[in-house]
Design goal:
The protein is of the alpha/beta class. Helices cover about 35% and strands about 20% of the residues. It is built from 17 helices and 21 strands. The strands form 4 sheets. The protein has a 7-stranded mixed β-sheet, with helices on both faces. The longest helix has 16 residues. The two termini are about 30 Å apart.
């Protein structure tokens, strides 16, 4: 649905975060006289009223009946369409969409394809992958937009002038269905991996996978770039009209040990690249496959990965202080991500801080890994901290590692310091690693706020570590 098609309809906005405000501005740019209702909190309603938009009416109560009074509701990504109110409205005929859907519909060509777009999704590594893709495209001389879930809503780039030569777009599982529902087709869609995630939003792991894969199964990209090592992706039925290109397969871009190959040809050693974790170096293969899918020389561009600037809050080395190394991996919201982070520091003594908002994810695989590859200490915290602690307790008692419960991030840091103090040195600086494996909701608004607080508590400047390099058009 294009924005112009909202004219004459009863339209509401649901949510007033950055995405909601971007949707308001985009609709106003096309339809200045359209009456809009905003469903939001009291604080957000006050903020919206300060805009002075006489045709924007704030409402702080929302239920199925109030939503059903509208033909279209444009919701923010964090609001699940599977909630009771949303489902009741849909059953009454209301169409619920996201801003991502509006953007794609606005930019589709006559053939339905949004040209020069590469959309990246996956449970782990999608932000770094999208940013690295933008970096390599810019190295080729292309004016490239880096936007989406990474921190810049697409609707904030509704009518850029001049238009970018290429788009590197990160999509969360909250947004992939919006692309599918827009009726537009991405030029290239990249799916990195699939692990249990966001079960509170999707309702089940099966629905999470289904929603994530809508970027391929329903959005029908011109080319789908898929991970050959992921069993779900290997078995995926791809729609007619979509070409598949695999990465992580010996016939395409893949890692052999630490060396990046294209087919049988070695291209470069990845050990010196500023890509934390083997999974991120493996995702370089996904980036180069996408570069080729967009029609560019990936072999020539691969060496430019050496000048990439890592993203904040993603296995971010803050520095050394008080005899410890400090690593901010606040973006980690699954146990799989925490295991990947620990793998990066297998040669060091590590105290890892885990726990946060409890979405009911299964930590048994993490616990099993602790039997063989435990860090020096695990500090639990947050709402699911007690559940994780109970699961790990018999393993820790068997002598694998120190296990300590904390009441919050500040205490967790103090306990991490204490746990690492006095250990026999292993030749490298011991590391305090924030890799929670869970969202931040409760004490913090989001993972960024949590990561900034970790940096502050560790003695680093939060502002100096928080900028996302290259966001926007360059």
């Amino acid at each position: 649905m294009r924005i112009s098609q909202l004219d004459g309809l009863r339209v509401a906005l649901w949510g007033w975060g950055r995405e909601g405000r971007a949707a308001h501005r985009a609709i106003r740019a096309r339809l200045p006289a359209l009456e809009l209702t905003l469903f939001c909190s009291e604080e957000e309603a006050d903020d919206a009223r300060r805009l002075g938009d006489a045709r924007l009416h704030a409402c702080t109560q929302v239920d199925g009946a109030s939503l059903a009074a509208f033909d279209v509701v444009v919701k923010s990504p964090g609001i699940s369409p599977y909630g009771e109110a949303a489902q009741a409205a849909v059953a009454s005929g209301t169409r619920i969409i996201g801003g991502t859907s509006l953007w794609f519909a606005e930019h589709a060509g006559a053939d339905g394809i949004v040209a020069h777009t590469a959309c990246v999704t996956g449970t782990k590594g999608k932000s770094t992958t999208t940013s690295l893709l933008a970096h390599l495209l810019r190295a080729s001389g292309l004016r490239t937009a880096l936007a989406g879930n990474i921190g810049l809503p697409l609707l904030e780039l509704l009518d850029p002038s001049p238009a970018p030569d290429a788009w590197a777009i990160e999509l969360s599982s909250y947004q992939t269905g919006d692309v599918a529902g827009s009726g537009a087709r991405p030029d290239v869609a990249v799916v990195l991996n699939l692990f249990p995630e966001h079960l509170d939003w999707h309702g089940s792991h099966a629905r999470y996978v289904e929603d994530k894969l809508k970027l391929v199964t329903r959005a029908r990209p011109r080319i789908a770039v898929l991970n050959a090592a992921d069993p779900i992706l290997r078995g995926l039925a791809v729609p007619d009209g979509t070409e598949v290109r695999w990465f992580g397969d010996e016939r395409g871009w893949h890692l052999r040990g630490d060396v990046l190959h294209r087919g049988a040809t070695p291209v470069m050693d990845t050990r010196g690249l500023p890509l934390p974790g083997r999974h991120n170096r493996g995702n370089l293969a996904a980036v180069l496959t996408a570069v080729e899918a967009l029609g560019h020389d990936a072999v020539a561009l691969a060496p430019h990965a050496a000048s990439f600037r890592p993203l904040p809050h993603r296995l971010q080395w803050l520095g050394e202080r008080d005899g410890f190394g400090w690593v901010n991996d606040s973006i980690s919201t699954t146990p799989h991500a925490t295991l990947a982070a620990l793998e990066c520091f297998a040669d060091r003594d590590v105290a890892v801080l885990v726990g946060g908002h409890d979405r009911g994810l299964d930590w048994s695989e993490f616990a099993s890994a602790m039997r063989q590859h435990a860090p020096a200490a695990v500090i639990t915290m947050g709402a699911n901290g007690p559940r994780i602690h109970e699961l790990l307790l018999p393993i820790a008692r068997a002598g694998g590692f120190r296990l300590v419960a904390s009441r919050g991030l500040g205490e967790a840091i103090d306990l991490a310091r204490a746990s690492l103090t006095g250990l026999s040195p292993r030749g490298c600086t011991p590391v305090v690693l924030l890799s929670p494996g869970a969202p931040s909701f409760g004490p913090y608004r989001d993972y960024v706020e949590r990561g900034r607080d970790f940096a502050r508590l560790a003695g680093f400047d939060p502002d100096a570590i928080s900028t996302i390099p290259g966001l926007g058009i360059a």
